[in-house]
Structures are given as C-alpha cells and as structure tokens.
Amino acid sequence: MKTIIYNSYRYGFNGMEKDDEWTSTTGATYDYGFRIYDARIAKFLSVDPLTSSYPMLTPYQFASNTPIWAIDLDGLEALVSTYSQGTNIYGTNDKTQFKIDADKEVKARLTTASYNVNTSQQFINLLETQTKQEGSISYLSVYSHGTANGLIFDNGYDGKEAMAFNGHNWPSYGYLNNSSIDDIVNNENIIFDANALVVFGGCNIGLQKKYKGKNIKNFASVFTKKTGIASIGATDFSQPLSGDENIRSAKKGYFLYINTGRGNVRSIFLGSNLTIDIISLAKDFVETGQKSIPRLPTKKAIIITNN
User: Fold this and answer.
1) In whole angstroms, what is the distance from residue 244 CA to residue 58 CA?
2) Assigned domain for 36 exists
3) What is the Cα Rg of the chain in Å?
C-alpha cells in the first residue's frame, strides 16, 4: 500500500503561518495578524492599518521598504537594534559579539533589523532615518562599550567616539568628539513613542552608586529623565551569555529606569541576566503602565533625583 506523508509544518516566509485555504501551486498566503501577504503577487491584500500615521510610505509597503534589512512583524512597524565597533584599549575588537547580541533580538523578533554604528553622528543619523521612515521609534537597543558617563561607539585608537550624558570630552580616555543626550532631545527629527523602551547593553550604563551620600548620575537614568523614555542599563560589567534566549549578564544586575513625571526617575531591579523574556516583560510593563513587573527578582526600588 502506498503511504502519503503530508507536510504538517505550518510556517514559512518570515516565520508567519501559512493559510492553506488560500495556498496554490504557485505560491501561498501568510497571516501577519493585521494583514494577509500573498506570495503569488508579492503584495499584501490590504493596506497597513497605520498608513495614516506614515504618509511617506505606500499603504502596501513591506518592512518600511527595507526587505533586505528588516522583516515585517505583524503588518505594523519596524523596531531597531544597533551594535558598535568595540575595539577596547587592549586591542580586542568586540564588534562581532555586539552584533551577535543585536542579532539575537532580531531572531527573537524583538526588533526587525540590526545596524552597525561606530560614531555618535551615525547613531543620531540612524534615529533620524527611523523616525522619517516610521514616524517614531518604539523600541531601540544599543550594544556597545560604555561607562556610567555614556556610550562608547568606538572604544579604541581610531574614532574615539562617545555619547556622554553631559556632552563633555573625556581627555583621560582620549575621547574628544562627543555628543550628548541633548543632541537627541533637541533634535526635532528624532521622535520616540511615549511608551518606548531603550535597552543599553554595555557596562555600567545603569551604574547605581552613592558618593557623599548622594546617588551619582548614570547615563541610563539621565537619558530617561531628559527624554521621558524608559531605559534599561547594567549597574556593573556586562558580559555576553550563550544561548539564543540569553543576551548578557551583570553580577549586580540590570535596572529599568522610568520617568515618574515629577522630575524623578524610578529604578526597578530586573535581575542579573538580560534575556529576551526579561526585555519582553519590561517592554510590556512600559507599554501597559503596570505597577509591578511579574516573575522578577525582588529588590527595593530606588528613586533617583539627578539634581
């Protein structure tokens, strides 16, 4: 007797579920949640539901017209990861690891694309481009070296580029071409969603430490206070983790910083491991305005004034 084996795998292009009722010998349709994609004509069968918010894009566009770099998550908008050059003072280049970290988010579909940025101006240009294409930025991750003072896009002897929270140069480290958070805040071409989240994956960017009885400033909390956008930062050295669902680890942990709307910034402990699940929980927390994040290690929240 002849045995027929049917292919029961339901997913295809971009990992979306195939609609077998519409599937033909020449192609298939895929359910994107908000829209149906017809592979036979390489088009969506309906307009993007957010088309009125993005007049610069065709209502039938896919992944903001960047199909090589991005995927279309559910027919709505793209989300971005960045990774930097990462040459440290010992001559070791960590660019490959930073790219791995950023690409894990793409694979997990937290973001739609990862971009290499090696200078603060490239970083600003990318934010401007994303705003122009999408209307606003709802999620951003930055994998680079860092300190409590800021992001280091090229930690070495070539570019010596950094973004400090105060914009000052760091002559002792050789960084002389800095930008500041104000270059984002005062740029009318950069727009974040009100419930956006920014993840800083580098070392010490969320450092929590007291000096003469006061909390010292760190880049993540100052970013959140000045922009109003929630952010995540490590409070000590941030090390890479293995596994697709794991990204980084910090012994003293990662903190989520939220602007309270009263001039203060609230910090919430997220645990010692930065994983896809932890980022997703934090993202949901920021988007929904919950009062507490479930299933996370408990630790007293700290209010940072940054006066």
Assistant:
1) 34
2) no
3) 21
Helix (H) or strand (E) holding 143: strand 137-143
Give how many domains the chain has, as a whole number: 1
Q: What is the DSSP letter of 121?
A: H
| Domain assignment of residue 266, yes or no | yes
Which is nearest to 264 in space by CA: 294, 298, 301, 297? 301
Residue pLDDT, tens place only, 157-184: 555 678 888 766 666 666 666 788 999 9
Planar angle of CA 137, 141, 144, nearest 5 degrees? 135
Angle between helices 276-288 and 95-107 (to 10 degrees): 60
Picking from 305, 219, 230, the residue whose alpha carbon sits closest to that of residue 268 is: 230
220 belongs to a structural domain: yes
234-286, pLDDT tens digit by residue?
999 999 999 999 999 999 999 999 988 777 888 999 999 999 999 999 998 89
CB 78 within 8 A of CB 66: yes
- Rounded to the nearest angstrom, the gap between the alpha carbon of residue 63 and the centroid of all alpha carbons in its chain is 17
- CA–CA gap between residue 165 and residue 189 (Å, rounded): 19
pLDDT digits (tens, 9 = 90+) for 253-262: 999 999 887 7
CA distance 173 to 152: 11
Neighbours of 38 (CB within 10 A): 16
Any domain includes 31:
no
Contact between 29 and 14 (Cβ < 8 Å):
no
The domain of 120 spans: 79-304
- Identify which of 188, 267, 269, 189 has the alpha carbon closest to the alpha carbon of residue 225: 267
| Under-50 pLDDT residues of the chain | 1-7, 75-76, 298-307
Beta-carbon contacts of 195 under 8 Å, excluding residues fewer than 6 positions away, are: 138, 230, 286, 287, 289
Cβ-Cβ contacts under 8 Å for 199 (sequence gap 6 or more):
140, 141, 142, 231, 232, 274, 279
- Tokens 């390489």 belong to 42
